[in-house]
Q: What sequence folds into this?
């Protein structure tokens, strides 16, 4: 799968979400993709880090509809997840599973105004 097909599948799967949410996900996707290219990663490797678009969309849907009440989220937990997300971008083993999930979590937390 190339970037155009992946982007099309991701964008198509986001049509039922608010426009601002869709745009933020796509901006984050493009940013992560550009960072991968800047690091010299192949397109296939970058897209593998996101995982299958249908699986990613299911994770987005689950997190979007079952997000935690933001009044119950501890600021320390959020900051630790930010640090973990930064560290995982260079982590090789297991990153292909964890990065998409954390990516989605960070987007949703941002949409909720938590981070």
A:
């Amino acid at each position: 799968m190339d970037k155009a097909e992946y982007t099309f599948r991701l964008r198509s799967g986001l049509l039922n979400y608010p426009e601002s949410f869709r745009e933020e996900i796509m901006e984050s996707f493009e940013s992560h993709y550009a960072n991968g290219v800047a690091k010299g990663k192949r397109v296939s490797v970058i897209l593998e880090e996101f995982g299958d678009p249908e699986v990613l969309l299911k994770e987005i849907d689950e997190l979007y509809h079952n997000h935690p009440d933001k009044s119950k989220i501890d600021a320390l937990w959020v900051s630790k997840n930010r640090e973990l997300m930064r560290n995982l971008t260079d982590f090789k083993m297991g990153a292909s599973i964890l990065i998409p999930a954390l990516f989605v979590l960070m987007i949703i937390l941002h949409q909720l105004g938590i981070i």
